[in-house]
Fold this protein.
Amino acid sequence: MAFSFHNKSAILFDMDGVLYDSMPNHSKAWSQAMEQFGMHMTPHDVYLNEGATGHDTVVRISLRDRGYEASEQEINDIYGYKANLFRSMPEARVMPGSQEVFRKAAAAGLKILIVTGSGQKNLIERVQRDYEGYITRDRMVTAFEVKRGKPYPDPYLKGLQIAGVPASEAVVVENAPLGIRAAVAAGIDTIAVNTGPLEDEILLAEKPVLLLHSMQELADNLENLFA
């Protein structure tokens, strides 16, 4: 592996599909919500749009399926319906290997932050419990902290500001094409972890420095990356 953590002082994690195996629930919730409002969203669509805010996702699908932008009221209604469906589903498991990655990153002295497009308050609260000692609310950038979500670089630029480090000293861990694009646009070396059904080529097209296939694989290789 050519990439290393030499001179890195912060690591920024996406949440869904990286820290939690929550994307199957998101996929079902988005599909049912869009169908309720006369649109169509396949699991492939959900993974391609992962990382964007709920607002931007509804706008994008409305333009594609109906040829016009959804109103603010409709956006709120659709996302609210989707959020309620998501909350009713079985709790997503912590992604295997993710807590080990946190332990090793903290032991190496890296600042740890979360940068997510999510506005799911239950997950935002839960992550502070499951990753207690590493994450507090002021170490998170969510849909509530930025006007423009991924694929714009704004969420990761905000993360760098909170961490107090330049882009050259940070690493991002992402599983979504839009998230990788956002991090790369912010000038940050990005590790892609393909935990979903998308082809590797879709993630590689966004120019990550490394592609792995699970958080456990990242945990198992951290010592080599720190060397």
